[in-house]
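Retro notes (design track)

What went well: tokenization of the new backbones is finally stable.
What didn't: we kept losing track of which sequence belonged to which structure.
Fix going forward: every design gets posted as structure first, then sequence, in one message. First example under the new rule, 604 residues:
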């Protein structure tokens, strides 16, 4: 019995051990199968995201991201794409249309340079953590070759340096420095070209840097064909001086770019430059230029003449020669009296070029008729005319509109309308006027003027002939807008204006930077610019202010002028507009003294 019991206990022990082994194997299999499924889900999501992000980038020209990812150190360096450059950002899954991932999608990040996508939480399988698709990356190698062309090659005032930069691989950032002036651009082609305008001779250095590898290349371009000097000459002469003028000759005018023209300015020193004359000189031969100076171009003045020569090359450069003054002698004078000209109503005059003047009385001819109102007479010496009104005697009436009269000086007989005096009152319906030339009486009905306002209730009109008056009540129009303060209405007969203050509604937001209110009486609209209060911080990037009149909210980005280091990863700055703060990650760049933050100066 005891032996049998011993066998039974041994058997039971072996059975329990076997069951434990089987249970452990089943548990391992189940856990391993679960992790395999998680890895497959991650790979599937990464493939879908890679395709959809590429479509989004092609459509919008930007990545679907929402904020910078600053914990990239969670992913081992040997896992990262060695060609990554720039920042890492969290992918904005909501920005991608029709995106379908597994329910446990989680957070995904992307490198702005290579567009490589990572799952920073990773999936562990058999002791290894996976963060991205199983792709092999090799480091990009880059070579840089420079070449250049100077355009044009002949003398010029402005030349173009045509730089040609050969790049072997994609994803490069070239920084080019002409004369220490930087310009950054990215180019993914095999060849990049740049053009730089220069206006001075000298040596221009250009440096290119590849961001991925830090590789640098430089080239020095000598420019020697910039021409900024005007033409030169050997000497000049002034000769053939007479009372009528003199000659100027300029000898051997030359320029490396060619002589375009030569001009000369001449003036008399006694009158300043009020008689200045500018004209082109005449080309002779072998670079010699000539001009004749005539005193007839300068009011026939004698005395000192000054000249300045301006020489132009074919590029627009100029140079000048101030010619020594030349004295033109004064010729002997004989009086040469001109024709008689009208001086005033009683005399005419004539003058000599030397300034001598003589006067005489007009020699009038008889009056002759011009028209029914005037006659004229002419001076036989200077041709001056004197017009005057007819001097009529007493007229004789023909009818109620006309009479006939005769001029006492030219004997012209004319029929004219009566010359009535003012209307005088006759009765409530009529007034009358008397012709002052023939005493004929003309009786007519009153001629009323337009109404003029008397007060707020009445207006009056007046007979323009005799002054009779008529008073009636105003005939008002509807109210209309006058300005931002008032509206008014006008009497249709006398145009009297009656004004009152607008009855404004409260301001409501209108469009853009304005709000408006409406008058309930005349429907006038008053639009005004928003009256904003002080700026206040909203978040890390923005501040806002509200219109104190209509409540319109205006949002803008912070304006930071200086940054202060916080720690080895971040710095902050105060907005100069609202006083709020903004915190962001250091902008790490390379310098001669090592890596630093380009904004706050933090040294790594």
């Amino acid at each position: 019995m005891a032996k049998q019991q011993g066998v039974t206990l041994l058997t039971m022990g072996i059975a329990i051990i076997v069951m434990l082994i089987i249970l452990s194997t089943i548990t391992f299999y189940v856990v391993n199968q679960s992790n395999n499924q998680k890895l497959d889900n991650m790979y599937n999501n990464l493939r879908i995201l890679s395709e959809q992000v590429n479509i989004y980038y092609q459509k919008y020209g930007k990545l679907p991201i929402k904020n910078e990812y600053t914990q990239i150190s969670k992913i081992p360096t040997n896992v990262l794409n060695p060609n990554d450059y720039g920042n890492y950002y969290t992918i904005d899954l909501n920005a991608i249309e029709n995106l379908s991932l597994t329910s446990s999608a989680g957070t995904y990040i992307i490198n702005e340079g290579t567009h490589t996508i990572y799952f920073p939480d990773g999936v562990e399988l058999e002791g290894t953590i996976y963060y991205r698709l199983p792709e092999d990356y090799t480091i990009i190698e880059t070579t840089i070759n420079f070449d250049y062309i100077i355009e044009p090659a002949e003398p010029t005032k402005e030349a173009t340096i045509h730089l040609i930069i050969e790049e072997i691989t994609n994803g490069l950032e070239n920084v080019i420095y002409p004369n220490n002036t930087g310009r950054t651009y990215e180019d993914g082609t095999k060849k990049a070209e740049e053009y730089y305008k220069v206006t001075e001779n000298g040596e221009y250095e250009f440096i290119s840097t590849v961001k991925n590898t830090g590789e640098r290349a430089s080239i020095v371009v000598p420019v020697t064909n910039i021409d900024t000097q005007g033409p030169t000459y050997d000497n000049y002469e002034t000769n053939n001086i007479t009372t009528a003028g003199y000659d100027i000759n300029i000898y051997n005018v030359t320029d490396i770019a060619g002589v375009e023209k030569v001009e000369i300015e001449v003036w008399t020193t006694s009158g300043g430059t009020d008689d200045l004359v500018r004209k082109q000189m005449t080309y002779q031969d072998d670079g010699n230029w000539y001009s004749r100076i005539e005193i007839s171009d300068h009011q026939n003045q004698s005395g000192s003449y000054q000249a300045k020569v301006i020489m132009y090359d074919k590029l627009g450069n100029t140079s000048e020669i101030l010619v020594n003054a030349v004295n033109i002698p004064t010729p002997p004078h004989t009086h040469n009296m001109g024709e008689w000209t009208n001086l005033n109503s009683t005399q005419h005059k004539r003058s000599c070029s030397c300034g001598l003047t003589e006067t005489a009385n007009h020699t009038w001819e008889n009056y002759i008729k011009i028209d029914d109102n005037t006659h004229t007479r002419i001076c036989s010496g200077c041709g001056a005319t004197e017009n005057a009104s007819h001097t009529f005697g007493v007229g004789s009436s023909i009818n109620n509109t006309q009479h006939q009269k005769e001029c006492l000086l030219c004997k012209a007989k004319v029929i004219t309308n009566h010359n009535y005096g003012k209307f005088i009152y006759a009765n409530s319906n009529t007034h009358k006027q008397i012709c002052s030339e023939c005493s004929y009486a003309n009786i007519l009905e009153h001629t009323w003027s337009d109404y003029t306002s008397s007060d707020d209730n009445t207006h009056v009109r007046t007979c323009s002939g005799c002054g009779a008056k008529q008073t009636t009540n105003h005939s008002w129009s509807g109210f209309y807008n006058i300005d931002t303060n008032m509206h008014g209405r006008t009497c249709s007969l006398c145009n009297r204006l009656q004004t009152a203050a607008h009855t404004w509604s409260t301001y409501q937001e209108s469009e853009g930077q304005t709000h408006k209110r409406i008058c309930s009486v005349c429907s006038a609209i008053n639009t005004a610019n928003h009256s904003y209060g002080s700026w206040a911080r909203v978040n890390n990037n923005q501040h806002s202010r509200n219109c104190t009149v209509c409540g319109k909210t205006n949002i803008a980005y912070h304006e930071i002028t200086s940054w202060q280091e916080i720690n080895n990863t971040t710095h902050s700055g105060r907005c100069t507009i609202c006083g709020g703060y903004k915190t962001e990650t250091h902008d790490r760049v390379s310098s001669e003294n090592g890596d630093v933050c380009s904004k706050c100066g933090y040294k790594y």
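Added context from the reviewer: The helical segments are 2-60.
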